[in-house]
Amino acid sequence: MFNAYSKVFNKKNGRVGSLFQRPFKRIKISEEKYLKQLIIYIHLNPENHRIIDNFENYKFSSYNSIISPKPTAIKRTEVIDFFNDIENFILIHRQRKPINENLDFIIE
Fold first, then answer.
1. Long-range contacts of 28-36 (CB under 8 A, 24+ apart)
2. Superkingdom, according to UniProt (predicted)?
3. Could you read off the pLDDT of 53-76 as tens digits, one per residue?
């Protein structure tokens, strides 16, 4: 699927090659704590990079789909369970701890 998308995107935009810049590194997520930290990191990222003032208003994030009661393809219950409940999920995100307090790693 991504190969076909890349070809269409590249043709439309007069580009060649991969859509993602290299080098990027894949890291296996083997601990629940690590996954939880990544979820927070990803949701806060638009705010931390000053793309938007408040991460809760970023329309390209899964955050609002997770906290909304509307139907979604996201496995909402599984994500919320990492944080015990939806209230804790929201609270932890709103604490807006600096990245280095939430993450024990650097994404390369």
1. 32/82, 34/104, 34/105, 35/82, 36/82, 36/83
2. Bacteria
3. 999 999 999 999 999 999 999 999
Residue 108 within any structural domain of the chain: no
Does 85 map to a domain? yes
Mean pLDDT value across residues 46-59: 93
Q: What pTM was computed for the model? A: 0.68
The DSSP output letter for 21 is P
Residue 93 C-beta-side C-alpha neighbours within 13 Å: 31
Query: CB 55: neighbour CB atoms within 10 A?
Result: 21
Higher pLDDT residue, 2 or 1?
2
Query: For residue 56, which of 48, 47, 72 has the smallest C-alpha distance?
Result: 47
Residue ranges making up the domain that contains 54: 27-102
Helices then strands, counting H and E runs in the chain, come out as 6, 0
Report the domain count for the chain: 1
- Cα 14 from chain centre: 28
Residue 65 lies in a domain: yes
